[in-house]
Write a sequence for this structure.
């Protein structure tokens, strides 16, 4: 099917093409909901059964970093929406600016995630043979990035949790499997999103998008908003529930 | 009830109702399959194309028929559901007073334990007409315990216990299978359920088999068969104490004495009224048919082991003259 | 007045989608939905042979009770790989990716699917997934059963589980992309006048199938991903030794795998809905009811998954709910069977090969569906779960139903696909051989199932032998029934009699264009003014319509789609 301008050969009108693309993207996002839904279900069930261990796990996450990342993603959704608006109103320079901002914010998110994951490796919180939820509490010298006060609170909570759940470490490992599974999957989707944004940026700098035709910007916008919404679910599920004061 | 050649033997309380339910669904299925097949064949003949360009009529549908053939199968389906649900609820609701047997499945064998601790491997002994409950766990992967003759089946899942209950109604030996694929030897991970009369089951239960110390087996039996109720060791029971009896001379009610050897002990168990010990009433019941020869040997071994036990002043079975010999 | 439709010698179109461009690149980089359909035809046929080869080994081995041919371990790999190959790489793609891809744009009057490049991508995704699975097979295959129950698959199995699971994961995306393409195409690309209720039922059932594909497949994807990670990295969601729950795996797995069976049967039902009106030359009885039933099957099909788990020890309430819903999902299938049967009455029936397959489908799907009642019924399922009764039930539906539908469809549309007719008498004999062989293979399995023979057994008690031998004998006949069409369909593509646009004739839009069609499907965009399967208002078909019996023509709306 050859293409005449922006119109692909299988379509009769640009309107039909845009309707198809939009419907297609929404259906794809439904599949993503089902995909993330499966692992969120597994997490929710396990959270209910092993709530002591999962609460302990939640409390090892940094509220500051998680909260900051949430703001970053929300901001990136705003800049993405602005990019779409710019395309719809033919403000060609603005499209590129807003796309760039979105990409930058995305990379900020990655940076914070890199720090967080690094901490988890350092604190023996990665599922596997050396997983140990008590690692920092038992070896304060090895976890200098955690203050003595925080360590004391953590020790108290972990002891209480272990009294209620003798298999605390194994169940906490389940929490961390879910943590890495869900945030890893989310990060992978963001990487793909970043790639799509870079492609959009290249095209927008060549002046391809305007009020007449801006479907790719619109579609990637939908995808980016979805990835943001997944994080809006992940953040409370992983970081906020059962948080100690 | 004679089973059809396509049904396994009916050997449990569930078998009859499962087979009846199956027959109901089978008849319904036959009704629909025969009806539709006949209709298709009739139509194929009656409406066979007669000329090359012929077309069919313009009928598009019939709402009454649609409603009818939606509701009629729905009603039948709900009937099947309800009957099946009733059978299933019964199957999942064990009665209160059950004989509980613990079952462990592992790759690729079954370990079963009777209430008194007796263990079996790939075999299950149960008494007939008694409610049996199996409490099952797995050491590794998911298995499944299935007895076709009983029409019962339940997964055996690692990390939890599943229970299964049934009442065997027919004495015999029935195959059981592992019925959840569990690896290489899944197909040979089965065995036999032996359903016995209660007496035989009881006898089997307490018979420890050749590889257990006969004295301790005898000791267990002495308690299980309630011998100890009357033959109290300190002589205060209704029957003589067994301490020091073996090998001693026993004074009988008719004045004669007899040496308490293996034969005397055996006779006392199976024909207790043959020789009554002096000073005691003939109240001992016979254990003929209730104990096997092996069990008698074990009891004898146990009684033998009580030779050196202190004889009570009153209530020993030993003739006074012989009492000082020990 | 005699028929006019076969009086002129048909011409083979000079330029068509097959010869418009040449060379391997024009095929491997095509975005033409018709060529992609043929690419899929090659791949699914390849996997059908692989799955069939394993089936042959299974049946040969089971002729004796103690297993003379294969070791236990090898046998376990054979039945696993048979299931994996047949379900994920043959049955699920077969009708949608071969016939659906080829026909849907033609049936709705479009030039192609909405997303032709995504269509090609879906084939490559299938190929990559297939490569991983073939790698697993070459490395000894998997021995966990196609259901991959944990912890056997994640902890205890010593076979190539990880590459197989990765392969199936990847191939799932092929399914998702195909479903997405179909949904959008059917919504936005119908020709002017092709309203929803004028669509062929084939399109309706593929719409329903696409809904199931996009909602269900992602769940099995994440489930297999978690299971794969458990195997590779020791995570513990499904491993009780780490606090996980093997039953959770089963719930997640069956949430997709039950709707998957509707992905496999709905398209075949769509084919039958085309064949019966065509060969009875009559409108499908109860069109809207059949369309509604297809959607009902898709929706209710998502609510019944735990009927595979009645004996896992799940709560009695859950079992009651799932059994009830399972009986509900049986009703729309029954409604369809009655409507197909009613279509025959008052028709003008011919016994061309596609119609023979349709008759075969009716009988075998009927038996397969009815035997599902025994399994959905709690009281009987306890006894027959995981026995050969289940094996017989699903083979009646999948082989007696879906494969018969697939073969019937292949025969019906073969003239459109290759422009030539297959040899009719050989094809009829082949269909009958298939039907006989099939019943002999699988009916005895109902009997040994109720007698208590469990499935997935490499050895069995001797009292089951006679039925097993019967089953193997039937399988050898069945094999002939499959080999013959492979051979003569290929022969026909080169040497068959030229078919012409509409050899049957049939009423669908696809028959309004040449056989084979041009790359752009229609030289002029068609405008639809007739109802589906309306033989009475189609003078262009050249049939003998009785005078005065013709109905009213409905005018086309001003602008195409609604």
């Amino acid at each position: 099917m050859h293409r005449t301008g922006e119109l692909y050969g299988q379509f009769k009108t640009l309107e039909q093409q845009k309707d198809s693309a939009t419907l297609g993207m929404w259906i794809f996002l439904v599949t993503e909901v089902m995909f993330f839904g499966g692992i969120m279900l597994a997490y929710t069930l396990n959270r209910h059964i092993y709530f002591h261990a999962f609460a302990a796990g939640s409390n090892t996450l940094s509220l500051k970093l998680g909260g900051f990342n949430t703001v970053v993603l929300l901001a990136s959704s705003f800049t993405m929406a602005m990019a779409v608006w710019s395309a719809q109103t033919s403000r060609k320079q603005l499209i590129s600016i807003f796309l760039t901002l979105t990409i930058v914010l995305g990379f900020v998110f990655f940076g914070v995630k890199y720090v967080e994951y690094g901490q988890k490796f350092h604190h023996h919180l990665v599922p596997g043979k050396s997983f140990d939820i008590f690692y920092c509490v038992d070896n304060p010298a090895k976890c200098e990035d955690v203050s003595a006060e925080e360590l004391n609170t953590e020790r108290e909570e972990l002891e209480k949790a272990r009294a209620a759940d003798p298999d605390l470490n194994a169940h906490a490992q389940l929490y961390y499997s879910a943590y890495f599974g869900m945030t890893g999957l989310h990060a992978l989707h963001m990487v793909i999103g970043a790639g799509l944004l870079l492609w959009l940026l290249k095209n927008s700098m060549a002046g391809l998008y305007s009020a007449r035709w801006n479907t790719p910007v619109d579609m990637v916008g939908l995808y980016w908003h979805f990835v943001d919404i997944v994080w809006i679910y992940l953040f409370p599920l992983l970081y906020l529930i059962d948080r100690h004061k | 009830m004679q089973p059809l050649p396509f049904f396994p033997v009916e050997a449990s309380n569930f078998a009859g109702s499962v087979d009846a339910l199956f027959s109901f669904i089978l008849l319904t299925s036959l009704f629909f399959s025969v009806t539709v097949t006949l209709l298709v064949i009739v139509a194929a003949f009656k409406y066979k194309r007669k000329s090359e360009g012929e077309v069919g009529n313009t009928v598009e549908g019939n709402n009454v028929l649609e409603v009818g053939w939606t509701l009629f199968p729905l009603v039948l389906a709900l009937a099947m559901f309800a009957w099946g649900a009733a059978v299933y609820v019964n199957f999942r609701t064990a009665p209160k007073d059950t004989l509980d047997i613990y079952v462990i499945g592992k790759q690729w064998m079954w370990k079963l334990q009777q209430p008194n601790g007796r263990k079996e491997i790939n075999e299950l002994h149960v008494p007939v007409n008694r409610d049996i409950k199996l409490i099952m766990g797995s050491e590794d992967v998911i298995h499944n315990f299935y007895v076709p003759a009983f029409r019962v089946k339940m997964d055996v899942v690692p990390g939890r216990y599943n229970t299964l209950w049934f009442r065997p109604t027919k004495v015999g030996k029935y195959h059981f299978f592992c019925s959840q694929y569990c690896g290489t030897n899944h197909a040979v991970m089965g065995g036999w359920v032996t359903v016995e009369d209660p007496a035989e089951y009881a006898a089997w239960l307490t018979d420890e088999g050749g590889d257990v110390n006969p004295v301790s087996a005898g000791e267990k039996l002495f308690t299980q068969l309630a011998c100890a109720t009357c033959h109290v060791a300190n002589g205060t029971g209704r029957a003589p104490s067994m301490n020091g009896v073996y090998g001693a001379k026993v004074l009988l009610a008719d004045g004669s004495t007899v040496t308490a050897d293996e034969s005397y002990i055996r006779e006392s168990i199976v024909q207790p009224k043959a020789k009554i010990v002096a000073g005691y009433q003939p109240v001992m019941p016979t254990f003929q048919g209730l104990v096997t020869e092996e069990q008698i040997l074990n009891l004898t071994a146990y009684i033998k082991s009580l030779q050196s036990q202190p004889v009570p002043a009153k209530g020993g079975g030993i003739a006074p003259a012989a009492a000082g010999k020990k | 007045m005699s028929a006019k439709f076969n009086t002129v010698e048909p011409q083979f179109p000079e330029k068509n989608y097959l010869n418009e461009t040449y060379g391997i690149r024009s095929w491997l980089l095509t975005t033409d939905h018709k060529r992609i359909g043929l690419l899929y035809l090659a791949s699914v046929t390849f996997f059908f042979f692989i799955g069939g080869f394993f089936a042959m080994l299974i049946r040969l081995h089971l002729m004796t009770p103690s297993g003379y041919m294969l070791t236990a371990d090898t046998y376990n790999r054979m039945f696993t790989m048979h299931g994996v190959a047949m379900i994920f790489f043959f049955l699920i793609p077969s009708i949608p990716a071969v016939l659906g891809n080829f026909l849907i744009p033609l049936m709705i009057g479009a030039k192609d699917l909405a997303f032709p490049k995504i269509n090609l991508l879906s084939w490559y995704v299938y190929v990559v997934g297939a490569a991983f699975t073939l790698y697993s097979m070459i490395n000894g295959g998997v021995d966990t059963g196609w259901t991959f129950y944990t912890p056997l698959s994640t902890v205890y199995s010593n076979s190539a589980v990880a590459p197989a699971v990765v392969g199936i994961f990847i191939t799932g995306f092929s399914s998702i992309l195909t479903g997405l393409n179909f949904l959008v195409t059917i919504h936005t690309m119908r020709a002017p006048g092709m309203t929803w209720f004028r669509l062929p039922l084939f399109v309706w059932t593929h719409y329903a199938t696409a809904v199931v594909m996009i909602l269900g497949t992602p769940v099995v994807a994440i489930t297999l991903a978690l299971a794969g990670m458990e195997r590779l990295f020791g995570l513990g969601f499904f491993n009780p030794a780490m606090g996980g729950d093997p039953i959770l795996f089963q719930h997640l797995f069956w949430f997709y795998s039950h709707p998957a069976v509707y992905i496999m049967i709905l398209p075949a039902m769509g084919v039958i809905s085309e064949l019966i009106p065509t060969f009875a030359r009559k409108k499908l009885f109860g069109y809207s009811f059949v369309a509604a039933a297809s959607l009902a099957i898709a929706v209710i099909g998502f609510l019944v998954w735990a009927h595979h788990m009645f004996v896992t020890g799940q709560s009695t309430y859950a079992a009651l709910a799932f059994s009830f819903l399972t009986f509900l999902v049986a009703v729309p299938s029954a409604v369809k069977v009655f409507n197909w049967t009613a279509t025959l009455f008052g028709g003008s029936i011919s016994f061309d090969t596609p119609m023979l397959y349709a008759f075969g489908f009716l009988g075998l799907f009927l038996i397969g569906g009815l035997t599902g009642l025994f399994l959905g019924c709690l009281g009987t399922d306890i006894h027959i779960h995981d026995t050969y009764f289940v094996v017989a039930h699903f083979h009646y539906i999948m082989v007696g139903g879906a494969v018969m539908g697939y073969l019937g469809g292949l025969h019906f549309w073969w003239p459109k696909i290759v422009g030539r007719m297959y040899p009719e008498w050989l094809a009829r004999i082949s269909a009958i051989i298939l039907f006989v062989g099939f019943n002999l293979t699988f009916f005895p399995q109902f009997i040994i199932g109720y007698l208590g023979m469990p499935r997935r057994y490499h050895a069995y008690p001797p009292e089951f032998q006679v039925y097993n031998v019967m089953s193997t004998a039937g399988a050898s006949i069945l094999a002939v029934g499959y080999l013959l069409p492979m051979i003569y369909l290929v022969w026909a593509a080169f040497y068959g009699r030229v078919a012409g646009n509409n050899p049957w004739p049939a009423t669908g839009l696809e028959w309004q264009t040449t056989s084979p069609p041009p790359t752009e499907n229609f030289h002029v965009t068609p405008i639809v003014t007739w109802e589906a399967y309306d033989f009475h208002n189609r003078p262009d078909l050249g049939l003998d319509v009785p005078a005065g019996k013709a109905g009213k023509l409905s005018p086309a709306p001003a602008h195409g789609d609604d």
Remarks:
- The longest strand of chain A covers residues 3-4.
- Strands of chain A lie at 3-4, 7-8.
